[in-house]
């Protein structure tokens, strides 16, 4: 599955699980380990676990390998490593404290968020990078 389809799969899964404040960043050129960082928020330990679990489940259904799945013990910050994409599901206080957007935010990716119509992901809003 190409990167754009993987990205869409993750975003759709995040939205299905009611993740909030979804941001997508292009990390090509910043690291050779992965091409996208996707960050989303959940309001409680239970919700962040559910969000991450749903993303992992949908990825597995589509044949993607889960390279790593971390953080389920606390539920404050869960990480799903899909190889080309790393997904962070975080509670708002943890997200604000670690401020991953500052680290990876140099190249936001425009994506379509279905839950609220065209909206921002990263600093630009609206559509998948190829659209």
TrEMBL record:
Pfam families: RsfS. It comes from the Bacteria. Gene3D superfamilies: Beta Polymerase, domain 2. GO terms for cellular component: cytoplasm. SUPFAM superfamilies: Nucleotidyltransferase (SSF81301). One of its GO terms (molecular function) is ribosomal large subunit binding. InterPro entries: Iojap/RsfS/C7orf30, NT_sf. It is found in: Cytoplasm. One of its GO terms (biological process) is cytosolic ribosome assembly. Keywords: Cytoplasm, Repressor, Translation regulation. Functions as a ribosomal silencing factor. Interacts with ribosomal protein uL14 (rplN), blocking formation of intersubunit bridge B8. Prevents association of the 30S and 50S ribosomal subunits and the formation of functional ribosomes, thus repressing translation. Interacts with ribosomal protein uL14 (rplN). Belongs to the Iojap/RsfS family. This is Ribosomal silencing factor RsfS. It comes from Castellaniella ginsengisoli. The gene is rsfS.
């Amino acid at each position: 599955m190409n990167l754009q389809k993987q990205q869409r799969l993750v975003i759709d899964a995040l939205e299905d699980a009611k993740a909030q404040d979804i941001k997508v960043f292009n990390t090509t050129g910043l690291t050779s380990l992965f091409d996208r960082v996707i960050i989303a928020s959940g309001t409680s330990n239970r919700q962040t676990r559910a969000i991450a679990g749903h993303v992992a489940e949908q990825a597995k259904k589509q044949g993607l390998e889960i390279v790593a799945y971390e953080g389920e013990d606390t539920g404050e910050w869960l990480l799903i490593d899909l190889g080309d994409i790393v997904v962070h599901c975080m509670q708002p206080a943890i997200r604000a404290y670690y401020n991953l957007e500052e680290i990876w935010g140099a190249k936001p990716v425009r994506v379509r968020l279905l839950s609220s119509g065209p909206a921002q992901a990263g600093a630009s809003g609206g559509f998948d990078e190829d659209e």
